[in-house]
Write a structure and sequence with these properties.
The complex is a heterodimer of chains A (657) and B (480). Chain A is mostly helical. In chain A, 74% of the residues lie in helices and 5% in strands. A two-stranded antiparallel ribbon of chain A has the order 1-2. In chain A, strands 3-4 form a two-stranded antiparallel ribbon. In chain A, helix 1 (2-21) runs antiparallel to helix 5 and helix 6 (139-157) runs antiparallel to helix 7 (164-195). The radius of gyration of chain A is 30 Å and the shape is globular. Helix content of chain B is 74%, strand content 2%. With 480 residues, chain B is an all-alpha fold. Chain B is built from 20 helices and 4 strands. Chain B has a domain at 270-480. In chain B, strands 1-2 form a two-stranded antiparallel ribbon. In chain B, strands 3-4 form a two-stranded antiparallel sheet. Classes of the chains: A mainly alpha (657), B mainly alpha (480). The interface between A and B is medium-sized, with 25 and 31 residues.
Chain lengths: 657, 480
């Protein structure tokens, strides 16, 4: 068991080191082979670990593998340790399975790229950091993984570094995440200050004690626990692109599509959800923090869906969809349904990775065309991709028949999204109510925009140039096989896992890895909701798809007319609620101006001017003055000597007298 | 006190050199211009043999009615003078042959100058100081204008002569004042008179000022340095090489023995003079060199700056200070001769060149020479682990121990400024695009001197002990 865990975490690192450091020596093929093999092995081992932990006896549901001591300074003790419980085991499976599929897919997708080993090394490195994050035993190690995935994300978004837009997107992702990470770091400091420890076990043991304490923060007297949770949640918001700190995610689509599938859909962006679930024993003690989490999640779910309605870039549509789905997960956490959030995280990883890789397949097919306005009728050229994309879309829209066969029957997203909405409704609180209705609206829009994506891409007539069309082709097997694997997940992940995650045997499955009390209550309520709550999401999803069919297949002039009818609303949605413009005004330009002032006036004019440059210029000037004394005339020289003597004699005469 | 035959024994090296010089002069006169190679070789040999005689066996004491003194310090300094003169002589041949001035008088004049320097170093009386100084100076005036059909060389000689005469006059005037107040020209008697209360007399202090001024001219300390850039630039390059080494050693040695000897009771006064001259010299040497384009002129300012460091060590007035001075001087002589050896290899299309810009791209065309120059420049800038670093370190340590903290800090700052122009030469050699490449001269004396000097500078840190011991022994004599 210990060995298996170590192998899962460190095989990707080893593969990244081999592919990254020796890429020139070993070449493309071996780099692809090493990284794919390492990831597939890690995926197999993860499944084994998942079975052992998830379905093992109650006293064997937590394994901690201590690697070494990292920091031992005063009262601060931080270990390198791998902590495996059900929560981690779920993440291990999600991360390694999706990552291995993306690795295999990349072999086909990146076949014509000039730096394949670098790409594979970054992917494996990312996987290592992600695994480090999910297996961490304390907040500091989690932060290490957290920053590591941020770094890998930066490197991969900017993978095509000769593209200025990719560089800008990479920097933007990194900077926006800095805001979140700063909150996270402050949260860690606060937790350490209050409990004297950063290890999860000790924090959770002491959480009850400081729930009622107050601390000074920003000059205000605040509840200690709420402050900690909110600071940590800021970190989660940054990483999971929640409303306010979401602006980097759509731009991150500048990276290669496999990166979008792995990092910006299935794994890294869900780290925030994982963190909240991991720290659920803390969060459940603070009603304020949970309310904030719920509202932020619900607002994001709604906001991102509205933006998704209007976008034309195929990847951006899916990116906003991801943003929106993460909102669902957060408000599930907020109402206390951590297991439902993790359930959706898991199913979402499969169908969203499927959608992204499917979109990548389309892009590959159409020679790097990403604008849906220049697509259409692609199903002729890529029938398998078309079918798989439909699977992903139906899973995302949450299509399934409720009630029958106990829990209903449908695609993966159907189970997880419905349980979230039911939990929100079942919370019987104001925020839960708000979240429920925003979620219902979001479900409608989700169905609409994902069907819109399908119709614009695969139906109708091709709208691009003929040269591309003539060369369009179905993707190679290395790309299609991962799609099938993920497709299986998108179809069956929900029906298979429902019982363990949120069904009757949830408690035996999760053990003590998430906060039990609130989960128990909320799941109970969720299963007891009225019938219309269970049916409404399906109605919304079906009507969304139907409306989309009407708009984009039946009468394609409707979108233009709708836009004409609501021009300002469309502009608002199309420009992403003007968040980028707002941030540009509020933060970017003032920072630039401040930086420029400090640079031009502070550094160049004052520090350099008086300091290095000033002294250098002064020395030069002094030097030329001295040179002028050197006239070459004998009598000048003799005069200087006499002046010297006279000066010295005068000095001594005065000193004596 | 040695009398009679003992006096002659103590002065054996000087007598040998004088006799050898006279014989070679006669040989040269009889044989004419053909004898030049033989005379120069024999002179170099005689100089080295004289240096050997100093220590085989080494004796100390005073001679000729206390006019003449031999101790560890004088012997060490004389050895330095003789060896550097011999090396400078060997470095001269190629240059003077190229300009058509390779005549037998040159080695003779060099030997006479060396003899004068030896007498200066061993002087134990104001009279012998002056005689030694003048013998040295007169020979050097001629040597400076040895390339007599060249206007710049002639100008250099005349300037040096006129200003040197002024300095001699000042020195003589100071000596007469001291004699007037102390009643003797003997160092021992002067010291005694000062200790008995004459030190309080203003006249003695004024005499000291004039006397030190005369010597400060010889070491080219500010503000008596004005001749140095012009003479260094104008004089034939091998002569400049000599000027930068041997006379400096002799004048510094004389300053040490005069100030640490008879004028020790006036320490408070001469310390002020030396600190002022040291700070000004370091400053001028660092700053004024920045704008120079001629490498010989640059080396003139460099020597002014280095004299500043030496005076700072001397101004500490301690055994450590003198030790540092001897140490620094020895290293400086090696670096200085090395740099001039490199300059003497600089030819383009058969003509000697001496602009800094001419060095552009030297690293590509002549990597070995460029590397030697790089070592010299780094060493002059005082970058560890090269020899120049240790010299400066000893000086600054002595100064700080003697509570001269501010001058020492100023010295370090000047050394920072100075490193600019040393490193600029490295930059020109290694980074700038070469224009017309310098000629690839065959390996001669200068290349060997440059190579040996560079090796010494580079590897000094491996074996610093012998020089340290020698410097300590030399300084010990002054502090019984």
């Amino acid at each position: 068991m210990d060995l298996a865990v170590k192998l899962i975490v460190f095989l990707p690192l080893l593969a990244a080191a081999i592919a990254g450091l020796f890429c020139r020596v070993i070449g493309d093929r071996p780099a692809q082979f090493v990284t794919c093999a390492a990831l597939l092995a890690a995926a197999v081992l993860s499944c084994w670990v998942f079975v052992r932990i998830g379905f093992g006896p109650a006293d064997q549901k937590l394994v901690v593998v201590k690697l070494s001591t990292w920091i031992g300074s005063g009262t601060l003790d931080v270990d390198w340790a791998l902590r495996i419980d059900t929560l981690t085991a779920v993440m291990l499976v999600v991360v390694t399975v999706v990552s291995s599929m993306v690795h295999v897919y990349s072999v086909g997708y990146m076949a014509e790229d000039a730096s394949i080993p670098r790409f594979m090394a970054y992917l494996s490195l990312f996987t290592f950091f992600m695994l480090m994050l999910v297996t961490s035993d304390n907040l500091v190690q989690m932060f290490f993984g957290w920053e590591g995935v941020g770094l890998a994300s930066y490197l991969l978004i900017g993978f095509w570094f000769d593209k200025p837009s990719a560089n800008a997107a990479a920097i933007k992702a990194f900077l926006v995440n800095r805001v979140g990470d700063f909150g996270f770091a402050l949260g860690i400091f606060a937790v350490w200050m209050l409990t004297g420890s950063v290890s999860f076990n000790e924090i959770f043991a002491k959480a009850g004690d400081f729930a009622k304490m107050n601390i000074q923060f920003l000059g205000m007297e605040l509840n200690a626990l709420t402050t900690c949770c909110l600071l940590l949640f800021v970190g989660a918001m940054g990483k999971s692109a929640q409303l306010g700190l979401h602006t980097w995610l759509p731009d991150a689509m500048e990276g290669p599509t496999p990166v979008s599938a792995l990092i910006h859909a299935a794994t890294m962006v869900t780290a925030g959800v994982f963190m909240v679930a991991r720290l659920s024993p803390l969060f459940e003690l603070s009603q304020t923090a949970l309310a904030v989490v719920t509202l932020v999640g619900a607002a994001t779910a709604f906001f991102a869906a509205t933006v998704g309605l209007t976008q034309f870039d195929i990847k951006r549509v899916i990116a906003y969809s991801t943003c929106s789905q993460l909102g669902y997960m957060f408000f599930a956490c907020g109402v206390g349904a951590y297991s439902a959030a993790m359930f959706h995280l898991m199913t979402h990883a499969f169908f969203k990775a499927l959608l992204f890789l499917g979109a990548g397949s389309v892009i590959h097919c159409l020679h790097h065309e990403q604008d849906m306005r220049a697509m259409g009728g692609v199903r002729e050229k890529a029938p398998q991709t078309f079918a798989l994309m439909w699977v992903g879309t139906l899973a995302l829209a949450g299509i399934g028949v409720p009630v029958i066969l106990g829990h209903g029957l449908g695609f993966a997203g159907f189970y997880s999204k419905d349980i979230i909405l039911e939990a929100a409704f079942g919370a019987h609180s104001t925020v839960g109510f708000v979240a429920f209705w925003l979620g219902i609206l979001g479900a409608f829009m989700t169905a609409f925009y994902s069907a819109r994506l399908m119709f614009m891409t695969f139906y109708g007539k091709y709208r691009g140039d003929h040269h591309t069309w003539d060369h369009a082709h179905e993707s190679p097997p290395s790309m299609l096989i991962p799609l099938y694997v993920l497709g299986l997940g998108a179809v069956f992940a929900g029906i298979v896992a429902y019982n363990w995650f949120v069904g009757d045997s949830w408690q035996a499955f999760w053990g003590k890895s998430i906060a039990i009390a609130s989960t128990k209550e909320i799941l109970h309520h969720a299963h007891e909701v009225p019938l219309w709550v269970k049916v409404l999401p399906l109605v919304m999803a079906l009507s969304g798809i139907a409306l989309s069919y009407l708009y984009y297949v039946k009468s394609p002039d409707l979108p233009a007319r709708t836009i004409a009818a609501f021009p300002s609303l469309h502009r608002f949605f199309f420009n992403k609620w003007f968040f980028d413009e707002l941030y540009d005004r509020l933060f970017v330009r003032p920072s630039l101006a401040l930086g420029k002032a400090l640079w031009k006036k502070g550094d160049v004019a004052i520090i350099d001017g008086v300091g290095p440059d000033g002294i250098a210029a002064g020395t030069q000037g002094f030097s030329s003055v001295l040179s002028r004394f050197q006239s070459g005339y004998l009598y000048h020289y003799a005069f200087a000597m006499l002046v010297g003597v006279a000066g010295l004699v005068t000095y001594f005469l005065l000193a004596k007298g | 006190m040695a009398t009679g035959i003992d006096s002659w024994t103590l002065a054996r090296p000087e007598i040998f050199l004088a006799a050898a010089t006279c014989l070679l002069l006669i040989w040269g006169v009889v044989r004419g211009e053909r004898s030049v190679n033989l005379v120069s070789g024999a002179t170099a040999l005689a100089l080295v043999a004289t240096a050997a005689l100093l220590f085989l066996p080494f004796r100390e004491g005073t001679a000729f009615a206390s006019l003449f003194v031999v101790d560890r310090l004088t012997a060490t300094m004389k050895a330095l003078v003789l060896v550097s003169s011999a090396v400078a002589l060997l470095m001269s041949r190629a240059y003077f042959e190229k300009v058509g001035a390779w005549r037998f008088e040159y080695p003779i004049l060099l030997a006479l100058a060396a003899l004068g320097m030896m007498l200066m170093i061993s002087a134990n009386d104001l009279m012998s100081v002056y005689v030694g100084l003048e013998l040295q100076s007169l020979a050097l005036y001629v040597v400076a204008s040895f390339q007599r059909d060249d206007a710049r060389s002639t100008e250099a000689g005349v300037k040096y002569f006129v200003l040197g005469s002024v300095a001699s006059g000042l020195l003589l005037f100071g000596a007469s004042l001291i004699y007037g107040y102390c009643g003797s020209t003997q160092f021992a008697r002067i010291s005694q008179a000062l200790l008995e209360g004459r030190a309080a007399e203003l006249g003695v202090v004024v005499g000291l000022v004039f006397f030190v001024t005369g010597l400060a001219f010889k070491v080219s300390a500010v503000p008596f340095h004005m001749w140095t850039p012009d003479v260094y630039e104008g004089a034939p390059t091998p002569v400049t090489a000599l000027f930068a080494a041997a006379p400096k050693v002799a004048a510094i040695s004389l300053l040490v023995s005069v100030l640490m000897g008879p004028f020790k009771p006036l320490f408070a006064q001469w310390q002020q003079i030396l600190v002022a001259a040291a700070v000004l010299s370091m400053l001028l040497g660092a700053v004024a060199a920045i704008r120079q384009t001629n490498i010989k002129r640059l080396m003139a300012y460099s020597s002014i700056g280095n004299v500043g460091y030496i005076l700072l060590g001397l101004a500490s007035g301690t055994e450590k200070g003198v030790q540092g001075v001897v140490f620094f001087l020895a290293i400086y002589v090696v670096m200085s001769l090395g740099v001039f050896a490199v300059i003497l290899t600089m030819q383009r299309q058969g003509k000697m060149v001496e602009e800094i810009a001419d060095l552009a791209g030297l690293a590509r065309t002549r990597p070995m020479i460029a590397f030697a120059m790089l070592l010299f420049m780094f060493s002059l800038a005082g970058i560890p682990p090269l020899a120049g670093f240790w010299g400066k370190l000893y000086i600054f340590m002595a100064a700080i121990e003697a509570k001269l903290v501010i001058p020492a800090v100023l010295g370090v700052l000047c050394s920072v400024v100075a490193s600019y122009y040393y490193l600029r030469i490295v930059k020109v050699m290694y980074i700038d695009e070469p224009g017309v490449a310098l000629d690839r001269t065959p390996i001669g004396v200068n290349a060997i001197v440059a190579g040996v000097g560079a090796a010494v500078v580079a590897l000094f840190s491996l074996l610093p002990q012998p020089l340290g011991t020698a410097a300590a022994a030399a300084a010990k004599g002054l502090f019984p």
